[in-house]
Amino acid sequence: LAELEQQANAIVWENRPIRCWIPSPEELPGVTYRTKRALDWPVRIVDIPGADTCACCGVHVATTGQVGLIKILSAAKFHGGIRLQLVCGKRAYDHIAAVYEQNRQVSQLFSAKVLETGAAAQKATEALAAEKLRANTLQSQLFDRMAEDYVNQKDVLCFAEPLDGGQLRELAEKISAKCSGYAAVFSPKEGGYAYCLAQPDGDLRQLCKDMNAALSGCGGGKPPFQQGTVRATEEDIRSFFGM
User: Fold this and answer.
1) Which long-range contacts (CB under 8 A, 24 or more apart) does 105-109 make?
2) CA 194 to CA 161: how far, in whole Å?
3) Rounded CA gap, 137 and 128, in Å?
4) How far apart are CA 156 and CA 3, in angstroms?
5) What does the pLDDT average to over 227-241?
6) Cα dist from 169 to 151, 154, 222, whole Å
7) Under a CB-based contact definition with an 8 Å cutoff, are residues 102 and 114 in contact?
8) Can you give the pTM of this predicted structure?
9) How many of the other CB atoms lie within 10 Å of CB of 24?
10) What values do phi and psi take at 151, rounded to 5?
């Protein structure tokens, strides 16, 4: 696509003349042109010398230079072919100007030259991934330590700091592995709490159903693991579990 784009722009810069005409019925059979299907006379032909000759009844410029810059934005498979999204002329200028402004802002954030933002972004992404790995390791160790507080306890109700879905599940599973009953872990979320109920080899579906009904919740899952949200206060939750 990059090579085709370059070739198309080269033809634009050469400012080749474009010829549009309707060959006579006698001439048409001798004209080689691009078309999707057989056409009956009259057929309007658009010819860009050395580039393309096609049947078209649309509006055309007089020379290729009037098209201005051509920029392909995307390509996707479509009905056995390829669909291109592209811009040209002022639209191409406006798009590239907007992209440049965004890249200029990125270059400032990364303290990198405008043409070196890709490498800077890659470096930042790798550094972030390393920090996430370190943070996840520390958090897992923290969850292990928290779970130790519930060794051999029966059913456990735990309120944690804000956690995402995966973290909430990990903590609930670690606690449930230490206690003798189920672990119900709640994490603050806008409008209420996210929850995770876990009990190895248990069936928590009825408990989850009753809790959702009592605490304006929604959620579910497999028998030993239920996850969702409730619109309730900590006091409401403690009251439901009697803890």
Assistant:
1) none
2) 11
3) 14
4) 64
5) 96
6) 18, 19, 13
7) no
8) 0.65
9) 9
10) -60, 125
139-144 long-range contacts (CB < 8 A, ≥24 apart) are 139/167, 140/170, 143/170, 143/171, 143/174, 144/174
Strand order in the sheet with 52-55: 19-21, 45-48, 52-55
Give the pLDDT band (50/70/90) at residue 36: confident
User: What does the alpha-carbon distance between residue 204 and residue 222 come to, in Å, rounded to a whole number?
Assistant: 8
Indicate the average pLDDT of the chain: 95
Tally of helices (H runs) and strands (E runs) in the chain: 6, 10
Q: DSSP of 34-76, one letter per residue?
A: B-SS--PSP--EEEETTTEEEE--S---SBGGGG--EEEEEEE
Q: Tokens 């958090």 belong to which residue? A: 139
Residues 90-102: tens digit of each pLDDT: 999 999 999 999 9
Tens digits of residue pLDDT in 137-159: 999 999 999 999 999 899 999 99
| Residue pair 183/175 in contact by the 8 Å Cβ criterion | yes
Decide if pLDDT at 236 tops 90: yes
Class of residue 101 by CB neighbours under 10 A (exposed 0-12, middle 13-18, buried 19+): exposed
Tokens encoding 25? 């019925």
CA angle at residue 176 from 193 to 150, to 5 degrees? Answer: 90
> How many residues comprise the chain?
243
Residue type, position 207, single letter: L
Placement of tokens 């658009």 in the chain: 46
Phi and psi, residue 20, nearest 5° = -120, 125
